[in-house]
Amino acid sequence: MRHISNIANGVALGSAGVIMMSVLSGCSQQQEQAQNKFLVIEQQTNGKYIVVEEMPTEGPSRAIIREKDANGNVTERFMNESEMKAMAEQEYQKVQNGTSETVQNGDSSAGMGLAGTILAVAAGSLLGNMIGNALMNNKNFSKRSSSVNKSAYSRSAASRASSSSSTKKSFFGGSSKTSSYGSRSYAG
Prior knowledge:
disordered C terminus, 188 residues, alpha+beta
């Protein structure tokens, strides 16, 4: 009887593991699908560009580019994913050569060129997560990419990331603040 009980426990544990893995893989697939972006990129008076709006999209990545002509009139043009990808690939080649403004030290608050701005904000969705993660590990790139993105979505995502690092959430929905004193348990 004891042997049958151990087998039943093992089957239940194995089933729970399979269910958990399918839930987790579903979540990671959903994150991969939501990485495409819709951007509104605006040209500044100095000729550099910043992102003023960013939204995740289920469709392909795309952007609206707002530029000013010689008379100061604002024009908007649409950029599809293949155009964005081509610009990001060109800028990534400059990163590899060390000539891209995205990895240079300097005043990043003034914006960057259009290709640099696109690479800084959408590298993962356009060129793949491995390249995006490698770029974000570069201190200068990370600093410049966060400063060129002025969208509310980016600020909201950054605040969620910083607040989630100080609060631990359990699988079942509870949360606890971490402290420097550690945890103590008392039997009784």
